[in-house]
Design brief:
The complex is a heterodimer.
Chain A (H helix, E strand, L loop, with lengths): L1 H26 L2 E2 L8 E2 L3 H7 L2 H33 L4 H13 L2 H12 L6 H7 L14 H26 L3 H9 L4 H12 L1 H14 L4 H7 L11 H10 L4 H31 L1
Antiparallel strand pairs in A: 1-2
Helix pairs in contact in A: 1-13, 2-13, 3-7, 3-10, 4-7, 5-11, 7-10, 10-13, 12-13
Chain B lengths: L1 H25 L17 H8 L2 H32 L4 H16 L6 H11 L5 H7 L1 H17 L3 H9 L4 H12 L1 H17 L2 H6 L8 H9 L7 H16 L2 H8 L7
Helix pairs in contact in B: 1-13, 2-13, 3-6, 3-7, 3-9, 3-10, 3-12, 4-7, 7-10, 10-14, 12-13
The chains are: A mainly alpha, B mainly alpha.
Subcellular location (chain A): Cell membrane
Protein name (chain A): ABC-type sugar transport systems, permease component
InterPro entries (chain A): MetI-like, MetI-like_sf
């Protein structure tokens, strides 16, 4: 059948993703250091090793904290901004400008953030000095380093949420808004009871996309703190990199990957369900 | 309300643009300077970063991005057309779409070992071809995602007319689907380039030779090297790496608002 031939490249590729996951799960049950020799089956050993390592438990907590706070903050602020954008003119220009942070490579944001937060030789240091105080060393303090990274992520990715939600708000029929206004809806009641509920699918989509994407934070953490100070900003990705990939302990790395997959499924499964529901309707 | 909303919009635009503006200003600082604005402005940072090979790195990023985009388009075009238009059921279409959404959502770090072992087996570690193949993890699901939605919208009348005239599926693919999906192809190519351009994890792990570094990796190395506090040098590199993706703002702004549920 010719239609199967045409369909096959993409279907095979999707199949390879599944094979990759199965391979990772299988390898996680093996001891496999590339320098030592071929994989050797060891059952759950890698997982026992992981869960007896306090740094790993910390990495789990750091990852979940980061993903949840960053995604929720970005969604909340993004929705508010999108709602504000709805009532202004010249939206086309604004949409273009709000796209820029998504286009700029993350390393540029890292450079920007290092420059701003450097308390000795940063952009804000002379300003602070002028007013007679010193800016705190946010990245060097284990209590604030993670929040400094969350801040950078919010700065870069809130505009993305704004754009997605804004597209959803544009689909709200103007007649509904006029009718609500005649009925006396103003300010917050207009926003919370009329407009935003009608854009709920776009808001949910934005939230899930941010939750899913927030797991991919490697470059910001690695170039801002290397997971430190101590292990205060070590995410699962960093743990995977420093303990698994860098040392070529691929069995352990696979086990970390499986845990990472498992956690991210909490955001992925509902998202895929929503996608399927949208299309079947 | 109107005043509140214009305050919000102004604030949003300022935060969206100011990081780049600060980095642009910092790139004109003199060596050892750190307070803005640069006084007097100097292009020393740019001269230095050209010496350090940013030109080659930008070319490398472009090459890997274009390769990755070409692979994804070549795979996703025929598949999306066949799945949407060649008599498969809607249930099958939605199943493929859901599988695409799933693969698009997997954390790329979770597939690192599988990709690493595959590239090692094929002898493609430390090569741009290998990196472009690895990037299919990012770009292929996105390509399928966008193209499935576009293929679904191809006019059934045109399809039916061509079928009645006896055009084979392959002919219809080349003469109807490919031209009809021009915009989707453009969007996929642009989004792949943008994604690959900013990607760091895979590029840092799979590429070792400094002459093969992508722009993001080169900047990453500068940041963690002796240049880490030469704001003019690392800012100049960042500015040069930020310009190419920004040039695609028109295509990206259109595509981005459509990528949430694909519909």
């Amino acid at each position: 059948m010719i239609r199967w031939v045409l369909a096959s490249p993409g279907l095979i590729a999707l199949g390879l993703f599944i094979v990759g996951i199965i391979y990772t799960v299988a390898l996680s049950l093996h001891y496999y250091k590339v320098a030592v020799g071929p994989p050797k089956f060891v059952g759950w050993d890698n997982y026992f090793q992981l869960f007896s390592d306090p740094t790993f438990s910390k990495a789990l907590a750091v990852t979940v904290t980061f993903v949840a706070t960053a995604a929720l903050l970005e969604t909340a602020i993004g929705v508010a901004l999108a709602y504000g954008l709805m009532w202004t003119r010249r939206r086309g220009v604004y949409v273009g400008l709000l796209t820029i942070p998504y286009l700029v490579p993350s390393v540029t944001y890292v450079v920007f953030w290092r420059y701003m937060l450097d308390y000795r030789r940063g952009a804000l240091a002379p300003v602070a000095e002028f007013f007679g105080f010193r800016i705190p060393d946010f990245l060097g303090n284990p209590d604030t380093a993670l929040w400094a990274i969350v801040g950078l992520d919010v700065l870069q990715l809130t505009p993305f949420v704004t754009l997605v939600v804004f597209a959803g708000l544009l689909a709200v029929p103007p007649e509904v808004i006029s009718a609500a206004r005649i009925d006396g809806a103003r300010g917050f009641s207009m926003a919370l009871r009329v407009v935003l509920p009608l854009a709920s699918s776009a808001i949910l989509a934005a939230l899930f996309l941010r939750l899913i994407d927030a797991f991919r934070i490697f470059v910001k953490v690695w170039l801002l703190t290397r997971g430190g100070p101590g292990d205060s900003t070590t995410t699962l990705e960093l743990y995977l990199y420093t303990r698994g990939i860098y040392t070529l302990d691929l069995g352990l790395a696979s086990a970390v990957s499986v845990v990472l997959l498992g956690i991210s499924m909490a955001a992925i499964v509902p998202y895929v369900y929503l996608v399927a529901k949208t299309w079947r309707a | 309300m109107a005043r509140l909303s214009s305050v919000a919009v102004t604030l949003a635009l300022l935060t969206a643009v100011s990081p780049l503006a600060v980095v642009v200003m910092a790139s004109f600082l003199n060596a050892g300077q750190y307070s803005l604005p640069p006084n007097p402005p100097s292009v020393e940072g740019y001269a230095k970063v050209l010496d350090l090979g940013i030109g080659q790195a930008l070319l490398n990023s472009a090459l890997v991005g274009l390769l990755a985009a070409a692979f994804s388009v070549a795979v996703a075009l025929p598949t999306s057309y066949a799945v949407a238009k060649l008599g498969f059921t809607l249930r099958f279409f939605v199943a493929v779409l859901a599988l695409t959404a799933l693969t698009r959502s997997l954390p790329p770090s979770a597939l690192l070992v599988a990709v690493y072992e595959t590239l090692r087996g094929m002898g493609l570690l430390d090569s741009h071809l290998g990196l472009a193949l690895a990037y299919q993890i990012y770009s292929l699901p996105m390509a399928l995602w966008i193209m499935l939605a576009f293929a679904y919208e191809i006019s059934p009348e045109v399809e039916a007319a061509a079928r009645v005239d006896g055009a084979s599926p392959v002919k219809r693919f080349f003469y109807i689907a490919v031209p009809a999906m021009r915009n989707a192809t453009l969007a996929v190519a642009a989004l792949t380039l943008i994604e690959v351009w900013g990607e760091y994890l895979y590029a840092a792990i799979f590429i070792n030779a400094p002459s093969k570094y992508t722009a993001s990796v080169l900047i990453g190395h500068l940041v963690s090297s002796e240049y880490g506090f030469d704001w003019n040098v690392i800012s100049a590199a960042s500015v040069m790496a930020s310009i190419p993706p920004i040039l695609m703002v028109g295509i990206a702004a259109q595509a981005m608002t459509k990528i949430h549920f694909g519909k």
